[in-house]
Amino acid sequence: MVVMPNTSLELDTRPKMGRGWSNMDLQIDRRAVIGGTHVQDLDLALGGGCFALDNRVPLGITARMSSEVTSRPGWGAFWMAVTGLLFIGVTALVKMMGTRIPAAEAAFLRYVLGLLFLLPFLARILKIRMARSTLMLFGVRGVAHTIGVSLWFYGMARIPIADVTAMNYLSPIYVTLGAALFLGEPLARRRVLAVLAALVGALIILRPGFRETGLGHLAMLGTAIVFGVSYLLAKVLTDRSSPGVVVTMLSLTVAIGLAPLAAMNWVTPTGHDLAILMGVATLATTGHYTMTLAFRAAPLAVTQPVTFLQLVWAVLLGAVFFDEPIDIWVVVGGTLIVAAISFISFREAQLKRQAVTPAVAATKV
Question: Which domain holds residue 143?
């Protein structure tokens, strides 16, 4: 038996008939749910072998983890705050680059450069045999994310940073609606009211008829919807493949999907452009890692409200470095959306259900 800190893990190492070990590289349950929240990439080294926790049990291995784990809300809040800073850094770098590089090309270069961080996983993925239905789901998610990333880069270069950040908060709301419509998740009255409150927050931000609503704002609305679809597909795929495979396949499919769009209107990037996009890839990759640390430390009910700090930093960043006026209505609308998301996460924690509503940062580029 192998004992992990703050958890109990029992391994039944009896292989099924006709199957044996494969170089001591065993996949068990990488997406364990502990204390109501997902624990991503929970790996442990044992005797030189790598036991990757995964809900698939191909070698007859069974895993049971207790749900009693010591929550560390302070660390959870800290890592989520760091995540917010990193993603604000992504936003600022894209804003600095401006509109000289077309949105599809900028997104393509960001993902190509991001693949450098995933090179160690590519060899393993090429050896994995996937069902045709799983490959189709990866392809559909790649198409959806390709559209979302292109819209995000387009809108980011054209509207204030605070508007971008506040409108990105809508993705978890769309995930909640999508889970109810397509995954059979219950949508109780309180959750419906929270969703309606979030939509009111979006209307406060946009204020149609009272302020100029440009293509950048419409692009961000589309981005939130498409990223919500991508997250729901990821939720289905993590029941079939390990998170490492899901993340790497996303980068591959998005890079492939963006390639023809980038080629249609290619502008040769300068060294400065490439440096900025490398910074975007680095900050985004690090941000997803620190988000995982936040999920490990505390449940979403604790970390979700901390995402409000991202809006505060966005407002300050826009005002100090980009001379963007502070729009109090954007802050009010964003606050209402964050409050609605936090309430939904809190209710899920109370009901002790597997979390459906993602953290705001989980739907980032």
Answer: 73-363
Residues 95 and 56 in one domain: no
Q: What's the confidence (pLDDT) of residue 204?
A: 92
User: At 96, is the secondary structure helix, strand, or coil?
Assistant: helix
Cβ atoms of 329 and 204 closer than 8 Å: yes
Number of domains the chain is built from: 2
Domain co-membership, 54 together with 153? no
Q: Which amino acid is at 120?
A: P
Task: Tell whether 315 and 195 lie within a shared domain.
Answer: yes
Tell me 239's DSSP state.
T
What is the DSSP annotation of 14-57?
A: -PPTT---STTEEE--TTEEETTEEE-S-EEEETTEEEE--S--
At residue 310, the pLDDT reads 86
Q: What per-residue confidence (pLDDT) applies to 364?
A: 62
Q: What is the pLDDT of residue 352?
A: 62
- Tell me, yes or no, whether 206 and 269 share the same domain: yes
DSSP string of 86-117?
Answer: HHHHHHHHHHHHTTSS-HHHHHHHHHHHHGGG
